[in-house]
Amino acid sequence: MRAKRTIILSAVCLLLAVIILFAVWWIKRSDHSDPTVQRGTVVCFHDFPSENVPARNVYVWLPDGYEIGEPCAVLYMHDAQMLFDASITWNMQEWAVDETVGRLIDEGRIPRCIVVAVNNSDDRLNEYFPEKTLRYQEGRHKAFFGRVPFGDAYLRFLVEELKPFIDEQFHPLTEKAHTFMVGSSMGGLISLYALCEYPDVFGGVACLSSHLSLAYLPVGKGSAQRAGAFAEYVADHLPEAYSGRVYMDHGTKGFDAAYGYYQPAIDTVFQRRGWDDAHYRSLVFEGHDHSENSWSKRFPEALVFLMEGTDTAELNQ
Predict the structure, then answer these.
(1) 223 conformational bin, left if phi > 0, alpha if psi -120 to 50, beta if neither
(2) For strand 280-285 and strand 245-251, is the pairing parallel, antiparallel, or unpaired?
(3) What is the largest CA-CA distance in the chain?
């Protein structure tokens, strides 16, 4: 009997070891594999250098029939590893960005645009943290996941290093009216932060399942303090109403189940600052969870809302 238990225990340990090794291999594969797309083409810039953050891959998606130099809008997106190709993601899910953007352009619902997809790094949480909110948290000047966050440096990389490169290489329309950003979870936070920090650069941002607790998932004193600090920051730095568009949403399952507790504070800030329904949208999706499968379903609505009012005739000709 004891020998049988030993054999079973050894088999279980071996199985767990195989699972762990496979998981590590899969994660490394997703970090280093270029995506395959169903629509359009992808131009890969490996180990894009920066003086602000570690080098990482950047992928520029071009719609079908588009030639470099033709007028187009630009959509910047975080977490590029998860956007195009489920075969290389850690959870075998994707946003289906190429299919969605290509279809919406064909239908004339959004202007012709290119997508600049930026890989996250091993320090994703700190890169996507809205750094200046720490000033609103008494006694919490450097504490976030054990180190100093550097969301400001990440945004300097996007605005001062990557955007000029994209503008020079692809010659898109460079005005804020044609420049957008989309992210989810911590990527949602840094997207709203980007609009507040660079209101003359970005004309609209979409923040899906924004991690408004900034660290703690359960509703409690610590998470409420951090969420309150972010709301205060937004109240002090939000651009003037009618100066752009902001889309926010969350689901009701998994991590998203807690976000409904924090979102009203952000909604109130926008309302008090005069943002109407045509420029600010905050939605709840029943049954949606914190996953690429859910975000891919909401992405079309978010993108159409951001780009409403952009001259699609000019950009799609």
Answers:
(1) alpha
(2) parallel
(3) 78
Beta strands, E only, the chain: 41-48, 56-62, 73-77, 113-118, 179-184, 204-208, 245-251, 280-285
pTM value is 0.87
Collapsing DSSP to helix, strand or coil, 177 comes out as helix
Range of the domain at 277: 36-316
101 and 26 share one domain: no
- Say if residue 211 is in the same domain as residue 91: yes
Q: Which two tokens stand for residue 174?
A: 């460079």
Looking at the structure of the chain, the number of domains it has is: 2
CB within 8 A of 2, min separation 6: which ones?
Answer: none
Report the CATH number at residue 68. 3.40.50.1820
Same domain for 173 and 99: yes
Type of residue found at 87: S
Residue 100 CB neighbour total at 10 angstroms = 18
pLDDT band of residue 147 (cuts 50, 70, 90) is: low
- pLDDT above 90: residue 143: no
61 and 200 fall within a common domain: yes
Distance CA 83, CA 79 (A): 7
Strand order in the sheet with 41-48: 41-48, 56-62, 113-118, 73-77, 179-184, 204-208, 245-251, 280-285
Of the candidate ranges 5-9, 62-66, 123-127, the one whose mean pLDDT is the lowest? 5-9
- Pair of tokens at residue 74: 């630009």
Whether 232 and 167 share a structural domain: yes
